[in-house]
Design goal:
single chain; alpha/beta; Aldehyde Dehydrogenase, Chain A, domain 1; Aldehyde Dehydrogenase, Chain A, domain 2; seven-stranded mixed sheet; six-stranded mixed sheet; 13 helices; globular; binds nicotinamide-adenine-dinucleotide
């Protein structure tokens, strides 16, 4: 059963009761799955007050107690993974196996934060005078407000919630209205795990109105957002105007560098399968494919062969490897990139047109013959569309890879240690994957540089954005 959709404020699930209700649509069939209540201003005030009140006690809670709750949520995540995954496929569209992989991976995120929150340390600084003691303390920052997107509904929300709660903060999260079921499941699990009322609150609504209200409130102290660069800049600006800490996980335009000494079949196969993951709606999706001219034809042939074999369809159907785009807005958004490429005389090697009929389907699409200033080479496509272009020289390709304002992830395929070292030293990206895909584990930091964001999630850095530093000195 698709779950009943509610707000979760001060430990209570609340729904209709005169609130604006939004349809939640299955992107594979366009059927209405459920109705989502929008928070009124009174709801947002209630969430802010609940989070403020709960912070007074939660900030003093033992890390052992926080750890126990996070661990319990990890266990519940594993226990309930199948149901949550099915509902996520219904409202987000990704194939069931991918949804299940996301949920199970998130149980690890819970465990990691449960372990790491017991290791939030301060330090003692040696004094200039023997009578003086100097302590550096790390304290939870306060009420956090977080805004998470629809592409990885469970993962994006759980990382922010675990970091806030593990650090001793309280949090109000606005989840993705297009794909809300996974975030509903998270709220239910924290309640079942015994989290005190008000520590986690969940709201929905018009994104711009909700974020504006919550960020301006004097109660909130920290803003965390995952989404597009333009919205991130807007929210970071608002946070700055109100002197609030911000963590921003924003978009990318990941360059892929395939050198002539790489295992071309392996690179092309791995990259094709990674490209269509979540129908390309991944901030670290491989996006601009620069392939050495000596191996360009071989790479393109293998890459398109693998993509042609991908079964596209309803994510609940057996054998489907790529589902629909997550919502209706994404179809014209992807078509716009193809239209620009066509106007420029590029070659549409495969795909290129939305699939007719029910559902928001767009096939894997490969485009060649694009100049570096084409829309697809400069704006984040966020879909199953790949431009493949040749290069001749390592310095040239590094310059081209670094030419955009984005700096999230990057991918390199080479069998030369010298090339791998040179590229990893010079590429402007928060994450560099060489000959494999290894980002987004709980124990490693995930984040971008340049326009792709501020701060990291995961790794030992995970609590940095949720703690403030206090210096205490006494004689
Ligand atoms: P969009 O820009 O309208 O929304 C992107 C996300 O930001 C959504 O989750 C939305 O609810 C939220 N959002 C939008 N305006 C907001 C505001 N003022 N305050 C708070 N949240 C706000 O576009 P879309 O069609 O939903 O998504 C497409 C674009 O979003 C993509 O091109 C991609 O760049 C970006 N995106 C990035 C990620 C990521 O993981 N970095 C995830 C999802 C979407």
């Amino acid at each position: 059963m698709y779950p009943k959709l509610s707000l979760y404020i001060n430990g209570q699930f609340v729904s209709e009761d005169g609130r604006t209700m939004q349809d939640v649509i299955n992107p594979a069939t366009q059927e209405v799955l459920g109705k989502l209540p929008h928070a009124s201003q009174a709801d947002l005030d209630a969430a802010l007050q609940a989070a403020e009140k709960a912070f007074a006690t939660w900030k003093k809670s033992s890390p052992m107690d926080r750890s126990a709750i996070l661990r319990k949520v990890g266990q519940l995540t594993r226990d309930r993974a199948k149901d949550i995954a099915r509902n996520m496929t219904l409202d987000q569209g990704k194939p069931l196996a991918e949804a299940l992989g996301e949920i199970i991976g998130c149980a690890d995120h819970c465990d990691w934060h449960a372990e790491e929150c017991r290791r939030i340390y301060g330090r003692v600084v040696l004094p200039r005078s023997p009578d003086v003691r100097q302590l550096v303390l790390k304290e939870p920052i306060g009420v956090c407000v977080a805004f998470t997107p629809w592409n990885f509904p469970y993962n994006q929300a759980i990382r922010k919630i675990c970091a806030a709660i593990g650090a001793g903060c309280t949090i109000i999260l606005k989840g993705p209205e297009d794909s809300p079921s996974a975030v509903m499941a998270i709220a239910q699990m924290f309640q079942d795990a015994g989290l005190p009322p008000g520590v986690l609150n969940l709201v929905w609504g018009e994104p711009a109105k909700v974020s504006d209200y919550l960020i301006r409130s004097p109660i909130s102290r920290k803003v965390s957002f995952t989404g597009s660069v333009p919205v991130g800049k807007l929210l970071a600006g608002l946070a700055g105007a109100h002197m609030k800490r911000a963590t921003m996980e924003l978009g990318g335009h990941s360059p892929v560098l395939v050198f002539e000494d790489a295992d071309i079949d392996r690179a092309a196969t791995m990259l094709a399968k990674f490209k269509i993951r979540n129908a390309g709606q991944v901030c670290v999706s491989p996006t601009r494919f620069y392939v050495h001219k000596k191996v360009y034809d071989n790479f393109l042939a293998k890459f398109t062969d693998v993509l042609k074999s991908i079964k596209v369809g309803n994510g609940l159907d057996d054998g489907v490897e790529m589902g629909p785009l997550a919502h209706e807005r994404r179809v014209p958004a992807i078509a716009r990139f193809v239209e620009d490429a066509r106007k420029r005389g590029a070659q549409i090697v495969m795909g290129g047109d939305a699939v007719a009929g029910k559902g928001f389907f767009f096939p894997p699409t490969v485009i060649t013959g694009l100049q570096d200033d084409a829309l697809l080479m400069t704006e984040e496509p966020f879909g199953p569309i790949a431009p493949v272009v040749p290069f001749s020289d390592i310095d040239e390709v590094i310059t081209r890879a670094n030419s955009l304002p984005f700096g999230l992830s990057s991918y390199v395929f080479t069998n030369s240690l010298q090339t791998a070292t040179k590229v990893s030293n010079s590429i402007e990206a928060g994450m560099v994957n060489i000959n494999h895909f290894g980002s987004a584990l709980p124990e490693t930091p995930f984040g971008g540089i340049k326009d792709s964001g501020i701060g990291s999630e995961g790794g030992t850095e995970t609590f940095d954005g949720y703690l403030v530093t206090k210096f205490v000195t006494h004689v």
